[in-house]
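Exercise 7.
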Amino acid sequence: MRGRVEKMMKAIDEVVGLARIARLVLPLAVLTGLATAPLAQGLDFLRKTPESRAEVTLSFAPLVKAAAPAVVNVYASSKQEQAKNPFAGDPFFERFFGGLSQPERARNSVGSGVIIDKAGIVVTNHHVIEGMTEIKVALADRREFPAEVMLRDPKSDLAVLKLKAGETFVALELGNSDALEVGDIVLAIGNPFGVGQTVTQGIVSALARTHVGVTDYQFFIQTDAAINPGNSGGALVDMKGRVIGINTAIFSKSGGSHGIGFAIPANMVRAVLENAKAGGGVIRRPWFGASLQGVTAELAETLGLARPAGALVAEVVAGGPADKAGLRKLDVITTVDGNPIDDPDAFGFRFSTKIVGGKAKMAYLRNGKAQEVEVPLVVAPEMPPRKPVKIGGNTPFTGATLVNVSPAVKEDLSINGVDSGVAISEVENNSPADQVGFQKGDVIIAVNGQRIGDTEAMDKAARGRTYVWRVTFNRGGQSFTSVFGG
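Solution. The predicted structure, written as C-alpha cells, is:
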C-alpha cells in the first residue's frame, strides 16, 4: 500500500512539473514562434531546434538594436523676460540693494522623438517644443544637432523637426496603425525622466481610445508598456520594427506609469508628415462643413437604429462639402472609406487623416436606410480674410489678438455654434486679457451693446473710453455676458 502511494505521489509531481514548465515556457514560445502544436499533442514542440539567435535568447535585443538609433532625445529651451522692476536704474536703491535689473529666465523642456526620414526629419510631440525657441536633438550615440521646426500642429499634438546636418541618419518606417489588433506586442522606446534611452515592453491594450483630453483628435492606441514623463514623442514599435504610434500621454495620479499609456496612431503621424514635407509650415486638413454629435440610446431608438453608434449630423454649412455631397441634418455616418465610425471622435480622426484633393466615401443611414456618398476633400475657405488685430491700451482685451471668423478660423480654433463676431487667436501670458480669463477660441460677439462684425469694429470699440465693459462672447458653443471694470 505504501509503495502504491509513493508511486502515485511521484506521478503527481511529474504532472505538476510539466504544468510548471508549460506555464513558464509557453508565453515565450508563443512570442518566438516555437509553439506550433497545441498542448493536446504533448510538449514535444519544446524539443524543436532553435532557428535563430532570437529564439535561443528569447530576447527583443535584435529588434531594439535596429530601432534604438532612430529614437532621439529632444531638448528645447526659451528665454522669457522677467517682469520689470519699477526701481531698476534708480541710483539710491541700486546703491543699497545692488543691481535690480533682472536677467531673462530660461525655460526648458525634455522629451523624445523619432527619426522617420534618413534626411534627418524627426517627429515629436508638440507639447515638448511648445513655446520653445531653441531646439537640439541628441542621438543614441550622444551626438547632438540643432533642429528647426518644419511644422507645429497643436491639434494633433505633433511637431515635425529637421536636423541641421548634411548627412543621412538611421530612420524607422511608419507602420499602418489600422492593422493593429488588441493583444499585439509592442515596445515603447524613449527617454523617461531624462535618465537616458529606455525600452519597455507590453501589448496593445485597446484601440480608438477617446475622451483622453490630450489632443483635438481623440483616437489613441492604449498600451500597458510603461510610459513615463520624458517618453513623450518617443516611438511605439511593433514586432517588425515599424513605428505604429508616437507615445504622448499617461494616465497617472502619481506622475509615474500605471500601465495605461496612450500613443498617437501612425496614420495621423503620416498625414502631418506629408503636410510638413509639402512646405509652408502650415497643415492643410480637409473641411467637412458640418457639425456632428454622438448617438445616444434614446436617439438610436428615435431614429430606428439597431444600436447607438455613428456620428449624427447636427448642422450642415450651406455650400460646404457635406452640403454639396447631399448630406442632411439627422443623417448618421457609419463608415469613412470602409472604416467603422462609432462616434464623432472616430469620424474626426478618419476624416482629418485624409489628404486634400480627391474624395472620401462615406456610408450613412437616413430614416434607417443605408446609403453612400462621396465628399470632396477641400480646405476650409478664408472668407472673410483674418485681418488680425492685437489690442493694446487699458482694456480687458489688452494682450489678445483677434481675427475675423471664417470657416478656416473655425476649423483652426475648434469653434462651434457661432458664425459671426471676432475670434481670439492668441492671448499673451499675464496680459489683462489673460488675467480676466479670456481664452484662445473665444468669440467676441458684442461690446457694450454694440455688435462686433469684424476686427475693424473690434479695434474701434476697444479704443473707446468707458468705466465699464459689458462683453458678450461665445465659448464652446455657449454664449456668456461678463462685466469688467475700466
